[in-house]
Amino acid sequence: MMSFGAAGLLSLPLLLVLILLGVPIAVCLFGISIVGIALVLGPSQALALTGEVITELAANWNLSAIPMFVLMGNLAFRSGLTELLFAAARAWLGRLPGGLAVATNFACAGFGATSGSSIATTLAMGRLAIPEMRRSGYDPGLAAAVCASAGTIAVLVPPSILLVIYGIYAEQSISALFAAGILPGIMTALAYAVLIVARCAANPTLAPPLAERFSWGTRFRLLAKVWPLPILIIGVLGSIYSGLANPTEAGAWGACLAALIAGLRKGRAFPRVLMDSLTETVSLTANIFFIAAGAILYTKLVAVTGLSATLAAVFAPWQDQPALLITGIAVIFPILGMLLEPLGLILIALPVVLPLVKATGADMIWFGIVIAKCVELGLLIPPLGMNLFAVKSITGSTIPMRVIASGLIWFLVVDIAVLAVLIIYPQTILVLPRLLVGG
Fold this sequence. Notes:
The protein is mainly alpha-helical. It has one domain. Helix content is about 80%, strand content about 0%. α9 packs across α17 (about 340-360) and α10 (about 175-200) crosses α21 (about 425-435).
């Protein structure tokens, strides 16, 4: 049998190579974990651990919030919420320098509050907004980059699926994490908007002024049509912070509200909308759980080979220097986030870094948002950030990858600045959870 240390050390580069070759991350995690554990402990132990991980994951009641939030986002999308959001944002913000890009930015933030998924938000809004911006003469790099960047806000704002996973694994209040993500999400959206307006004001060729003008009556009529969004947000968050429901129950409540809204909007077409939403929800949930199970199994391999202790030793010298430890994590996590799927990264890395951060006395709610922001950064880093590929799948050959990447550099700089503020001033994260949840 292979030595413990050799199996552990070999697993990391092998995992990265397979991911870079395009093998689905869940397959990589399961395959490497099962083979690695079998080499170290024997095939029977590998199969036993695999069954144990899958059973425990399937039996975790808190995880049932994930399919409910996914279903809510799918129903909101198929009921036409993306079109309504973009139309209203366009009417109110279109006259600003880069107005369509600003509208896309805030529409992404709004839809992120119903989808909980960065990729879903980027794809939903990108299909609508990128062609509209290109028809209006917008710079292709700006048009693509704003959709890729603003889509990541879904990682921060409730009901973020990543925060649900973090809360369960780190044993932190999901309600508090949801509250903690609100201000950083708003800060990110506002920072992006300032960037867009400043760039387009300095260089009007990036975004020609919008010729169409909207009366105040039209603006308010379009805004009134976005009524599903506040109903969903108030229904989910209001039920949580009023004490009427826990996050899992609130997810079910949100899905029911989304179904009711879709039924009112779609009428006779609702059964088809519901079936398509359920089908997509099952597919995405299965993918999320498959990745989560594979990541947890990989942590078992890391544990039995002693690799976790080796990795922890890398960070250990920083344990007495909290600022240096957090800075190191803030540098390393985005790089890993460029290579690994966000949920897989969180589940693989937390067993290593969580004990070290806890030992510094840092607030784990604050750390959860910092980690989420780091993962968000990783989604945008060229050339492998997942949101680049999400946007590329929309634009095809019309916008080269290098153009998308060059447009993203500006947003990455802004994201780094926001991350620095969140690290230096923890109260920007903690003020709302202390107000809404207490503690």
